[in-house]
Amino acid sequence: MSKPEFVYVTFIKTTPETLWHALTDRAFTERYWYGCSLTSDWTAGAPMRMEKAGRIVNEGVVLESDPPRKLSYSWVSVYDEEMRKEPPSRVTYLLEPSHGAIKLTVIHEGFAEHSRTLPDISTGWPMVLSSLKSILETGQPLSFAPPPHTAAEAAHL
C-alpha cells in the first residue's frame, strides 16, 4: 500500500528563473504565503524555516536544489503539538517549460499514517499556489486569508 501524498499542478505565465526566485526569496514568499516567509540558502543540507510574525511555523532541511528546475525539502509543522510529533514529510517543486508557460508541479509526500499534516496542507497548498500564480501573472496576490488551523494558532498568528 502506498503512502498518501498531495500533488498540485498549475501553469504559470512566467520564466523558470522568475518562478524559482518567487519560491526561494524571503520577501517574495511573504507576499503570496499570507505573511509567512521562507528562509534558507537553498543548498542541499541547509535548514529551511517558515516564519510568521517572528514565530517558526514549519521547518525542514533542503534535500535537493537544482535551480531553476527542482527544489525539495523536508517539512515539519512545528506550530501544532501533534503535527510536530510526526516524522518529516517531503515537498518537491518541479519547474518545466510547457506550452509557453512554466508547468509547476508540487508534490508533498511521505506522510505518517493518520497524519494531521496531510489534511492541513491539502487546504493550504491550493490557496498558496493560486496566490503565487496570481502574483506572478497580475502583480497581485489573492486577498483571501487562510482559515486558522487550530484555536491556539489563530490566537498566536
TrEMBL record:
CDD domains listed in its UniProt record: SRPBCC_CalC_Aha1-like_GntR-HTH (cd08893)
InterPro entries referenced in this protein's UniProt entry, alphabetically: ASHA1/2-like_C, START-like_dom_sf
Pfam families: AHSA1 (PF08327)
Source species, domain of life: Bacteria
Domain Activator of Hsp90 ATPase homologue 1/2-like C-terminal: 13-137
Family: Belongs to the AHA1 family.
UniProt protein name: Uncharacterized protein YndB with AHSA1/START domain
Organism encoding this protein: Rhodopseudomonas thermotolerans
